[in-house]
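## Example pair
The file below holds two records. Each record gives the amino-acid sequence first, followed by its structure token line.
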Amino acid sequence: MIAVLLSGGFALAISLLATPLFIRYLVRKQYGQFIRQDGPTAHFIKRGTPTMGGVVIIAATLIAWAAASLVTRNVPSASALLLLFLMVGLGFIGFLDDYIKISRQRSLGLSPRWKFIGQGLVGVTFAVLAVHFPSENFRTPASMHVSFIRDTNIDLAAGGATLGLVLFVIWANFLIAAWSNAVNLTDGLDGLATGASLIVFGAYVLVGVWQFNQRCSSLASAGPSCYEVRDPLELAMVAAAITGACFGFLWWNASPAKIFMGDTGALALGGALAGLSILSRTEVLAAIIGGLFVLVVLSDVIQIGFFKMTGRRVFKMAPLHHHFELSGWGEVTIVIRFWIIAGLFVAGGVGMFYAEWVAG
């Protein structure tokens, strides 16, 4: 438990203190945000605000987790390393996207084709490795069962190991793409995605700690009263580091933002959330805990689908937060209320997680 607290505390301190230094560096290099012309006009004043702040979030997470592991003499586990690989890998794709936008002064970065290829390479590598590295209890970091609060009876490997691996890779990459895009779409107002991520990853700290305290000691003891997660405490450490990093970054990212996380941070956080859901065996539950991100994506899907079918729009603008912005709501009002909604989804998800354990 001390390792979890140290991981979160170190990340908060690093992010809080390092972000202003990174802001000064970006200002000196003139690495500012390019604002899309078809967005809300109120955003034009944000042009030139330093971006790529996700670099700080990623760096703070890595350093804090490593420092906490070193202090507590905790040997890095396969689950933690895989989760960090996914986070850093997608963050690097986002960094390339941000850099192209800045260097070419346009709102489009990497082409969809290259972004898809990059995310696919990282996602496939993660998925393949996640079903290897069994522990002494023969548990691998991920399972080929589709999971809700724990593994369900839906076994992707029922048709054979090779087919199962292919299906699992497809399923894992769907989750990775969905969550990375969901966080990216939510990152449209000052502090919105950072604050929502802070709440969601904070919930996964609780989930990881609880799974560690109620872990199955062996395959023979597996059942509804314990969890078959390979490295729950290590996952809680990484989740705590991400939570602390977002907390420190939010000080500078809240309205009026001094820095944006950019695609670097959004893709990294989305990838980390997908990885946590897969490795903690809570793939479907994550859609409830991260319900705000799901709502934002649904608003975009509804807007596009309805417009293609009827030529009319459901919202004044998608994603959802821009609809309220064009309806006259203040940016801070929207962000705070969306944070409240995120908190309600997290409370519902964590409550469901605990209720399932109580019910046995």
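Second record, same layout:
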Amino acid sequence: MGLRYDWLRDALLPLFFSDMALLKRFPLLTIDLIPVVAPDHPMAALDGPIGPHILQQHVQLVLSSLTAGRDYGVLSSRTWRLADLGAKHSMLLAGLGWGNMLSHLVQNDIAQGRLKVIRPTEFDSRAAQLVMCVARLADHRLGPAGRWMIEHLSAAVDR
């Protein structure tokens, strides 16, 4: 049985989730991802690049609800899969693992010492970005509300 998309008219989605041919995309903004751990996590004591052999020893907290069953930025075979970004953030703060987080959500935690940025050798900051886009069914035209949404969101991002 194929997936049905008759409910979808306009949506705000991560770019990788909207890579289906039936969707037309309009990229809006790019959010950097930052690999972090709690200050009492064993990897917080490591300065400099962290190799794959060390990453494999530690649980990586992975947000799986956004990835449509695919892995992005998973560098450890020991993963805990989470469906909620708030839960992932709380688990990182509690020192239960390491993971990539949206930069704007952890800036204060990093500045106040609640989280520490780590440097996995295989982490590519140029590729570690979440591109958010507006998507619509390719065979449907945008209506007035959809056009307004794109214009409004584009203007808000440009501020």
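Notes on the second record: The chain has one domain: 10-158. The domain at 10-158 is CATH 3.40.190.290 (D-Maltodextrin-Binding Protein; domain 2).
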